[in-house]
Model the fold of this input.
Amino acid sequence: VSRTLFRSLFIFDPRPAGEVEDEVRAEFESHVAMIEEELIRNGADPVAAREQAAARFGDIGKLVREGRNIKLGDRIMLQRINLALLIVLGTAVIWLLVQNQRISSRSVQTLEQVSASLASMEQARSAERQVIIAEEARRSEPPTKLVYVKGHVARPGPIAIPPGGLTMRRAIESAGGLKKGATTIFLDHDQPGIADYEFAAMDYLGTHRPDPSLESNDVINVVHYDLPISEPDWMQNPEHAINDSAKADKTLADLLLSRQSAYNSVRYLISHGFAAEHRNVRQAVVTVEKIDKQIETRISELNSTAK
Amino acid sequence: VPSKQPPDLLQGTLEVMVLRTLSRGSNHGYGIARAIELASGKALAIEEGSLYPALYRLEKRGDLTSEWGTTDANRKAKFYSLTPRGRARLKEQVALWDRLSTAVSRVLSGDASPERAA
Done:
């Protein structure tokens, strides 16, 4: 039985079905012809013999198909099995392709999500890093050095020392300049071992302008004292009153220097607690007023000479 | 006129008759049918509608081979021959048929032995 099954499964007619049918049909026709010949030999009419012979076979077409099926039955069965297997395999391949496509699509989606998450994380980390860098930069920056200008100035307060350094005059200018009536400028150096200074505000405005460099935490204190000295007219606008030719005049220069010295005497006495009625103060004030008159006279002389 | 046999009988006996006919030499379908009719004293008439399926099944099983040839009347026909496998099968089938026919004969003649029946 197993040998028969083996033969039926693996040994079959390899010819096309049409060729097998043609052969079966030719065999039947040969058989019909032989019957016909026999009938004729036995005295039958040729036409009747042909009809009778054909009738023996009945439906030749049906017999041909039956013969073909017997000869090719296994092959047809195998072809059907092959077709079924092909359909199953094709379906499986299509299913696998679809699954693969879905998995690929999901993978791409997942990768995109992971990439987006990583990019977001990287962005956050970058921002954090920049904050850290900024913080480190801020920490690494040298501390701002300040001086303080207070007292009789337009905008008292701290002034930052720029990289190029800062002088007293620029510090006072940064603080808005001296207010009218400013008398004395005290410069208190923060660092020990450096002498403190005291300047007359007049010196600051006049021809002699001491302008010391400042260090961190130096304090400029501009003080106003009520000096018993009235300001002469030329002092309201000295730059205008004392023109270039007047500045070159030695007599005037000497007078201005004397006036400054006398003024400083008054200022010094007042700032150190002497009353305006004190004899020394009065004497110094008289000196100042005397020099002021001489200065006015000299300026007039110079102006008339210039005209 | 030869009597037509029922298909179930032919199915069982036709193949062994075909094998027996071909054991005497190769023959075509028409020749095989005529030979069986003559051998049966014209008691059996082989239908072509049964003969050829039997031939194709035997050929498929490897009991027969076939090839196209020419008859004495110079007609093209397909000749079937017995293979060694077919010859062995014929031997088996003949032996089987002998036992069967003996048994059937005994039953029909009422000659069965009581020992065996017991």
Notes: The longest strand of chain A covers residues 146-151. Chain A touches chain B at residues 4, 7-8, 23-24, 26-28, 30-31, 33-35, 37, 56-58, 63, 66-67, 70-71 (CB under 8 Å). Strands of chain A lie at 146-151, 157-160, 184-188, 197-200, 219-223.
